[in-house]
């Protein structure tokens, strides 16, 4: 069952990363004026944060499909990043609501619940799942495990060459 979850999560990361790179290109090709306006408004965000993040998701999704050890480290880093971002978003959301007196208790409760589920509990669940699924990920190179496994045989029990 773990392999299925890893496969689905790898495909999801490939889909989000690939879509995140392809959609701006298609937007530029078909809606050039609006895309250029959005690129100008979000200049430092798009080339320096958005595109590298989408590339990271794309590469990590491919690594998860092939169950590489570096992909496990990358996913754990992603979960920690999402957890820290979620805690900051939760604190910022509450600070925004209190400062500007927006909504009320209903909006604050629904927003806190949604942010806590999406950006705090989901990354914590991912950290726990991938920590338990660590043995599913092989070495970075396929031939590495065959030569580094320890043997219980002594030297005089080795087969002759």
Describe the structure.
With 161 residues, this protein is mainly α. The chain contains 6 helices and no strands. The chain has helices at residues 2-30, 32-41, 45-65, 69-100, 105-132, 144-148. Helix 1 packs across helix 2 (32-41), helix 3 (45-65) packs across helix 4 and helix 4 packs antiparallel against helix 5. The chain is flat and about 80 Å long. The chain starts with a helix and ends in a 13-residue tail after the last helix. The mean pLDDT is 85.
Secondary structure blueprint with pairings:
Blueprint: H1 2-30, H2 32-41, H3 45-65, H4 69-100, H5 105-132, H6 144-148
Helix pairs in contact: 1-2, 1-3, 3-4, 4-5
